[in-house]
Design a protein that fits this description.
alpha+beta, five-stranded antiparallel beta sheet
Length: 540
């Protein structure tokens, strides 16, 4: 049964806010389910954006996920997808049932938002399409606003180029004892980066510029069992960086991709396609559904009275990069107060949240390096203008506001760099006596960059040139955080290799932030002294 495109989009949106009547499935407006020739749940299940009363669930019907047209082997007609949420893994106690409509316009994905759940509780969920039942996912709600909470455990990750290696890190992440996962961007890459794998499908050897191309890259990543397992184990909070669209893109300015798509009208079309594909493949709420080349991704999540996580968007509203965006030594334009990495509206929203929040810990989910990063130990600065170093006015405003308003426990978590780092952040880098006001933990990549090494030549240079950089490591993995009222414990979890499956994982170093004392401190029992200043306390 075919329906008009406009009506299909309305149905898809309605399905994203699924009708819930106690524990009874909605019975009207159902669409016929096809006879499946293969499993329609090849891309798994996911949940995300936990609130005290519910979460958003996700799946996409794709019996042939790498079909060249990007439609996953699905027909034109919409399909009704049912779901259940239970308090037990065997679904003996189902607390919510509902249905959502999967349409061709959104790649037969569904995003039902489940409400009315109890705060601070684990649940199980599953989908059904006709006679086929999906794998079971596990999710949880956040604690009630302002509630006394003793602990939050989460992991953060970024940068997973499929062609660069295996997603082994997610096997280990799925086995961790976590409350949630934060992904800081570069969930896909628009083209292949470093070829450590030889099994890449031929249709994915070029660069994605249209909707089918981006859909295929998400499908390729989600076809990986370790990633599906990590999604099924915990709720995720996601954002994008540059490679979900185009390397180093900035607002309406194209990045470094295919030349013809650097024309503004073509880039807007490309960006709209990339945003839609992201929405189709992530556990995002209806509020995050893109409108053409615009997508609202900066948002805030509370964890009782213990913590508040503010997810930033450092791509969509920024001024274009100046000078040489990779490396520059002379760029006064970077300090121009008219330049912004956040945009005025998002920056004001962030500053208002930082200064008014009553949470004990403030966490910023950030894409590109915030702290000053000099990549030459000689005189002067040598830096990238794609990071916050290219937008120093915004950095000074954010960190200065934290200092002036007594935001004691501010921690920034960052992706992008394919390296593990622990750094102190200062209110004003132009002032040598400026106080440390926050900590920044940069997490390495899942795969991008290949196997990596513990301490590289660039790592030695960075440690020598940046007194506020306390730790460096260039292996692959993720970061595990264990947070209570008095201590932020940050474990850098690393793998010895990713060019083949089966790598073990270990904690390379542990750094902590103490309540009321800005800056990072090495845990003497865990941090090894071989990585430069890893064993030296900082920010004191």
């Amino acid at each position: 049964m075919a329906i008009p495109r406009r009506q299909a989009l309305r149905l898809a949106a309605a399905g994203s806010v699924a009708v819930l009547v106690g524990t009874s499935a909605a019975s009207s407006g159902r669409f016929r389910t096809p006879r499946w020739s293969a499993d329609p749940f090849t891309l798994g299940v996911a949940s995300g954006d936990p609130a005290p009363d519910g979460v958003v669930l996700w799946t996409r019907l794709a019996p042939d996920p790498l079909a060249p047209d990007g439609h996953g082997g699905m027909m034109n007609a919409p399909v009704t997808v049912d779901y259940e949420v239970a308090t037990d893994e065997r679904f003996r106690t189902v607390v919510r049932r509902g249905s959502a409509v999967a349409t061709r316009e959104l790649a037969h994905s569904v995003h039902p938002e489940v409400h009315g759940l109890e705060p601070d509780r684990w649940y199980f969920y599953r989908f059904r399409a006709g006679s086929v039942i999906s794998p079971v996912g596990r999710t949880r709600t956040a604690p009630a606003a302002g509630a006394a909470v003793d602990r939050l455990r989460f992991a953060f990750a970024s940068c997973q180029a499929w062609s660069a290696g295996h997603f082994t890190a997610y096997e280990h992440m799925a086995a961790e004892d976590l409350d949630l996962v934060v992904h800081l961007g570069d969930y896909i890459y628009e083209k292949s980066w470093r070829h450590a794998r030889v099994d890449q499908p031929q249709i994915l050897t070029g660069e994605a510029t249209d909707l089918a191309g981006y859909r295929l890259r998400y499908a390729l990543n989600k076809a990986e069992a370790p990633l599906r397992a990590a999604h099924a184990a915990f709720p995720w909070i996601v954002t994008f960086d540059d490679h979900e669209v185009d390397n180093n893109w900035a607002a309406d300015h194209p990045g470094l991709g295919i030349d013809i798509h650097r024309l503004p009208p073509l880039f807007r079309r490309r960006k709209a396609a990339a945003f839609q594909a992201m929405y189709e493949h992530q556990p995002l709420r209806l509020a995050q559904m893109p409108r053409g080349a615009s997508m609202h991704l900066h948002r805030c999540f509370g964890w009782g009275g213990l913590a508040e996580l503010t997810m930033l968007d450092t791509r969509q509203y920024r001024s274009a990069q100046v000078c040489d965006e990779d490396v520059t030594t002379d760029c006064p334009e970077a300090a121009d107060p008219r330049r912004t990495i956040l945009g005025v509206a998002q920056r004001d929203w962030l500053l208002d949240g930082l200064t008014s929040s009553t949470a004990r810990w403030q966490i910023l989910g950030n894409q590109v390096g915030m702290g000053e990063t000099d990549i030459d130990p000689g005189p002067g600065l040598k830096f990238s203008t794609d990071s916050w170093d290219g937008y120093t006015a915004d950095r000074d405003l954010v960190l200065g506001a934290a200092a002036r308003n007594g935001v004691d426990n501010l921690v920034v978590i960052t992706g992008d760099r394919h390296q593990n780092m622990a750094s102190n952040l200062r209110a004003d880098y132009a002032d040598p006596g400026s106080p440390v006001v926050a900590a920044e933990f940069t997490g390495t990549s899942i795969t991008t960059g290949g196997n990596g090494r513990d301490l590289t030549d660039i790592g030695r240079v960075l440690l020598s040139a940046n007194p506020d950089l306390r730790f460096f490591n260039s292996q692959r993995g993720y970061v595990r955080v264990d947070l209570d009222r008095w201590l932020w414990r940050n474990d850098f979890r690393v793998l010895p290799y990713i060019d083949r499956p089966g790598a073990p994982i270990h904690t390379r170093a542990t750094y902590v932030v103490e309540h009321g004392t800005p800056g990072v401190v090495a845990d003497a029992e865990q941090a090894a002294p071989t990585a430069g200043r890893a064993a030296v306390p900082g920010g004191r």
